User: Fold this.
Amino acid sequence: MRHALFLGSLLAASCAPNPPPRWEVGGAPLLVRPARWESSDDDPIEITEDGRVLDDGDLWLLIDRVGRVADDDGEPLAVLFPDGHLAGEDNRLLGRVGVTNGAPPGGAAAWFTIRKGGQVVRFDWDGEASDSGRWVGCDGPQLRTCALVTQLAFLQRYHRPSGSGVRIGIGVGVGF
Assistant:
């Protein structure tokens, strides 16, 4: 729940934001299978077969097989495009998501990667690597789905907006 509140405030620009672009048709194809992230930084996150994303057992997000992300009430939050751009409400760029990594909004390099065996490595703003737990059940085509969920969790946990509000720019991520 705490994730949804923060992510919603990060994504919201006004009282009635426009849904992400291409919400009706979706974006990148995703494989949605059960997986679990035992994060070293926070509570475990699970993806269920039907696209529910649970944070410590509580419904956090909904994802589908065409790259759409909704909040726990089913309201549109984001769409992952095939080229890796993650677009939020009012067409805000929420970073880029590759097969095994993600870059923050406006970032020029990845802020996390998922290594072989599911290890999640987070890169600090100065490039120092730290362990952020391990995904179980994320391999092959499922990796991009896990990378999307990791991106959304990192937006909640680590995004530091500059200035008076969230500033979104176009970033080029490593490995996209």
